[in-house]
Amino acid sequence: MTIKIQKIKTINELITEGANLFADAGLYFGHGTDNTLDEASYIVLGITKNLPLDNEQILSSEVSVDEQQKVLDAFERRIVERIPAAYLVGEAWFAGLPFFVDNNVLVPRSPFAELIEDRFAPWVDSSKINSILDLCTGSGCIGIASAFSFPEAKVDLADISALALNVANKNIQRHKLADRIEAIESDLFEGLANRQYDLIISNPPYVGHEELSNLPDEFYKEPQLGLDGGVSGLELVHNILVKAPEYLKEGGVLYVEVGNTDEALQQCYPVVPFLWQEFEYGGHGVFMLTKEQLLKYHTLFQAKLA
C-alpha cells in the first residue's frame, strides 16, 4: 500500500486519517496505547515534535509537506510491517519521562511506573534508599525514572545485551544523570560482584513459550531476548529469587514483574508470602519480597532452580 498526500493537512486531520486507517487494518495495540486514536496521535505528535501536548490549539496547526510525508510513511509501516509506534517515532514515555527507544529494547509499558511515582510507598522507607539496581534494564527507563524519584540514590542499570545498554546509555545522557547512574553488562547478577543495594527492581523476560507463540505480530518486532522467559516463563525469575539476597543490603527489598506468570509463580511456592502489588491505573503481576523473606525461603528457591 502507498498512502499519498492529497493536500496540506492539520495535525488533527492527520490523526483522524491515521485512526481510520488503523481501524481498517486490524492492528494490535498494547505498546503504550490501547486504541486507534491514541496510536495515531502518538505517531503524528511524535513526528511533529509536539509531545507532550501542552496546548490543544496545536492540533489545528498545518503540517509541512516534509513532515506530512514522514507521518504517512510511518502510518504505512505501522500497518504493513506491524511495527510498534514507539519504534517509528524513536521515543517512548514512561513515568512522565521521554526515552529513546529502538528495536534493541522492549517498548516501555511496565506498571512499575506507578510504583516509582509513589516511591514504592508504603512498603519502602524512601529516606533509606541510597542504592538501586534495575536488573534486566533494557532502555533504562525503570532505573532512570527511579533516579528521579530517589534523587539521593546511586543507580545501576544491568542487562545482558550490549545493544540494549547502548540505548540505556543514550537515555542516561539525555536525562543528564551520568553522575549517579552506571550501565553494566551483566547476565543477571554475574557482573555485579561485591555490589549491594537497598532496592532491586527487575522486569525480566517472563513470557512462557506457549504464550510467546501466540502473541500478535507487533511483539515479534521487539527483541525476543527481552520476552522469552523459557518454557514456563519463570526461568530467570527462579534465578533472581535464589541470588537476590546476596546483592541486597540489610533491610533491602526486591520487586519483580512477572506479568501473566504470577499465578504459576505462586503455585511454584505456595507458602511464600509474595506481596502482590495493586495498581490504580492498570497492570498486575508485580511482587515484593524482603531480604529476610528471600533468605527464609532460600532452600525452596534453590530446590526449584536445581
Automatic annotation (TrEMBL):
Domain Methyltransferase small: 128-211
Pfam families reported for this sequence: MTS (PF05175)
UniProt keyword terms in alphabetical order: Methyltransferase, S-adenosyl-L-methionine, Transferase
Keyword Transferase: yes
A GO CC annotation given for this chain: cytosol
Single Gene Ontology BP annotation: methylation
Molecular function via GO: nucleic acid binding; protein-glutamine N-methyltransferase activity
Domain of life: Bacteria
Name the UniProt record assigns to this protein: N5-glutamine S-adenosyl-L-methionine-dependent methyltransferase
